[in-house]
Amino acid sequence: MASDENPNHTVHVVSGLEPAEALEILGAKPRLFQPCELPDGKPDRWTSLPAAALGIESGASGALLAGRIGEWTFVYDDSMATDHLSTPSLSANGRSAATSMFSIHANASLSYFVNSEQLAWIDIHDDLEENLPSMPADLRAAFDAAGIFGLDGDVEPGKHDDAILMRAVCALAGLTCTLSDLRRIPLLVTAFG
């Protein structure tokens, strides 16, 4: 859903919380929430699908898209206007929450909290193989499921690609869905940032 030219984006996942509640914790205003059906396409390569659903012109504002699959809610932020600072609040009251961010400069990170306590922080430049044994079991399993991918063999043997943290967050929450799958579930969208 990220645009080709501006891949700054954040994904939050949280168990046991409704999408509207997650959006509010992230600072979005409930009066701006709208039900959403993702459009079939984008007006240009710079606009995300959530922004296109809102009719936001590229660069005018960001958009947050939220939905729930099973026990997990996700919030996709197309402009990286949200960050890890909200993850402890998302995880309050015994919930599990994780956030992954990716910038146009290939800076990426992942935080994982349970009951407002940070259990893991991973930077894309960290040695994942070295850090995997100390991660919680469900996060280790998410990294196993995320795999190692590269474009045209650009990933060295034993190394990971830059998108592994986003895939690990999605694997943690069981978000192995396609755009067609997303179009079949209730979604909320709001302008943000």
Automatic annotation (TrEMBL):
Protein name: Uncharacterized protein
